[in-house]
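Contributing: when you submit paired examples, paste them exactly as shown. First protein:
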Amino acid sequence: QVQLVESGGGLVQAGGSLRLSCEASGSTASIYRMGWFRQAPGKEREFVSRIFWSTGTTSYAAFVKGRFTIFRESAKNTMYLQMDDLKPEDTAVYYCAAGRNPTGLEYWGQGTQVTVSS
């Protein structure tokens, strides 16, 4: 089992920055990849970014590319999402997720609220 705890959300003005953290505990040696998703009110959860734990290879949704950066500190079992140039449409609950294989993300955090005011 892997437990995930997000932190770092909050209220920020448009154009501002936030850094989200996701700390993993438990069977962290089994983690293959981790990612960030978000869900805005009235919308479905959507993919934001992912990172492969062993290689550090990353990918991003088109709508955040160039503004968000995902990275990890393996020694701390922690993944981050640096969010710059935030826009009101980035307002959502952000979730981190982890998977032990290429086909699924079995573990989810509780979510952290990000609110961007215009």
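Second protein:
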Amino acid sequence: QVRLIESGGGLVQTGGSLRLSCAVSGSTFSGFAMGWFRQALGKDREFVAAIRWSEGSTYYADSVKGRFTISKNHAENTVYLQMNSLKPEDTALYSCAAKKTPGAAYDSWGQGTQVTVSS
């Protein structure tokens, strides 16, 4: 497991933007992929986006395609989630996660950062 530290959440108006960061602390990430998940109050956690660490393929939930962009910076050992055109339904606790191999579950999780979109 690796230690993941998220930052960048906050309060934004509908249509605004935020960029979340997820830094791998204490070691250089050498796993398979990192992803972003979110959990709104009273709802189950849901997948948002993921990126393969070595070759950079990206994957998105339908609800965020065209609005969110996941990216990585190997030198900074960090994954980013650029969120544009935010909607009130994007309000949630956003967490990043990492997995070691293609078939594995995400087994390292950060504490999360709150994103609140006001209408």
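If you have annotations for the second protein, write them as plain sentences, like these:
The chain has a mean pLDDT of 95.
The CA atoms of residues 14 and 60 lie 21 Å apart.
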